[in-house]
Hints:
Layout: E1 2-11, E2 14-24, E3 29-33, H1 40-47, E4 55-60, E5 63-64, H2 70-76, E6 77-80, H3 92-97, H4 112-124, H5 140-153, E7 158-162, H6 170-185, E8 189-193, H7 197-203, E9 206-209, E10 217-220, H8 221-224, H9 227-234, E11 237-242, E12 249-254
Parallel strand pairs: 3-8, 3-9, 6-7, 7-8
Antiparallel strand pairs: 1-2, 1-4, 4-5, 9-10, 11-12
Amino acid sequence: MIALEQVRFGYDGRRVLEGLSIDVPRGQLLGVIGPNGAGKSTVVRLLLGLLAPQSGRVLIKGRPVADYSRREFARIVAAVTQEEALEFPFNALEVVLMGRIAHLGPLGFEREADLTVARLAMQQTGVEALADRPLYTLSGGERKRVLLARALAQDPELLVLDEPVAALDIHHQIAIFDLLKDRHERGVTVVVVVHDLNLAAAYCERLLLVRPGAPALIGTVEEILTYRLVKETFGVEVYVGVNELTGARFLLPMSPR
């Protein structure tokens, strides 16, 4: 579904990604982790074609991202980025319906089926009661869930999400990741930037660890979330354990004192 081939990218002479090569098969849930400023959002922007690699290639379904028309790309890929500027006073339902634009007919009008898909996405993300509220009146967490509903309404083959649970309480964090897991189990490929290593361990099949000044690493949760790698990358002492109920790894930060 995704291939990055020897991708290099930097800002103002500072190298962020150096020879990054990964393959993400269809239907996988890949978590992107790493410290602040390491290049996680850069990976997202490259996947979405918002940045072009300075060398190497970014391929979606075997085609360079730059080769897609915007409509073609929107039929395959949906995204939630960290910062989205919606200048007009759209209400929440209107924003979610924007996810249907690539699927509209020649006249560009929403059909009843599009409205049904949008309302279902809002129900799944818990924002159906906000349908008539202008986006600017919503809290950060509510806005994030509306934007996720828009991405789900797009009915994509690939979801690319940059910190989708930032500003959400623990209840909604779990609900959103359950939703992403459901989509992944239905064959949708999911790439998600996540800061919470315990969420990454509980839900992701594989992890891409982006490290400042060192090559990125990709592997299973067990291969990436080790005491040594976490300490080297994040500079903290952690206890790495296994949940007896789920079998998932969990991490507890420990004070050096």
